[in-house]
Amino acid sequence: MLKIYVDTCVYVDLFEGGFKSALAFDFFVRGWNCAFELVVSDWVRSELKRKGMDSEYPLLFEKFKSKKKLHFVEHTPEELELSKSKSEHWQDYLHYLIAKKAGCDKIVTVDNDFISSFSPIFDICYPESV
Questions:
Q1: Cα separation of 97 and 130, whole Å?
Q2: Those residues with Cβ within 8 angstroms of residue 22's Cβ, 6 or more apart along the chain or in another chain
């Protein structure tokens, strides 16, 4: 079973509505139908909270949890410091480190810079490509 880490921007697209929301919703539905396991980090949750979206995601995660397809992982202070020292896009680097530590097969994002920066070292794709 694929283990997939999802970048914060995919959740933001889902919760904001519009065309991108439909693509994100289709992606999560595939997960609910057991196409993959979802890995969620404390970093994603904190980013969603900063964007005022902390009331939207519990139901989404519960659908994965009820099928035993949800994994939570936390980042360490050392990973945060390493991210800040390695990249000006340190948030993306932190997502990468967390996904790697969690044993993920892919990172899903809609951030073109994230894809171009990290594709050479990790399997990163758009939601519709999973």
A1: 20
A2: none
pTM: 0.93
pLDDT tens per residue, range 44-102: 999 999 999 988 889 899 999 999 999 999 999 999 999 999 988 899 999 999 999 99
What rounded mean pLDDT belongs to the chain?
93
Pairing of strands 124-125, 106-108: parallel
The per-residue pLDDT for 56 is 85
The first and second tokens of residue 126, run together, are 């758009």
Sheet-wide strand order for 2-6: 70-73, 36-41, 2-6, 106-108, 124-125
Say if residues 107 and 7 touch (Cβ distance below 8 Å).
yes
Q: Which residue has the tokens 């919703």?
A: 25
Spell out a b/e string for 58-88, using b for 16 or more CB atoms within 10 Å of the CB, else e: eebeeebeeeebbbebebeeebbebbeeeee
Residue showing tokens 């794709």: 125
CA–CA dist 94, 80 (Å, integer): 6
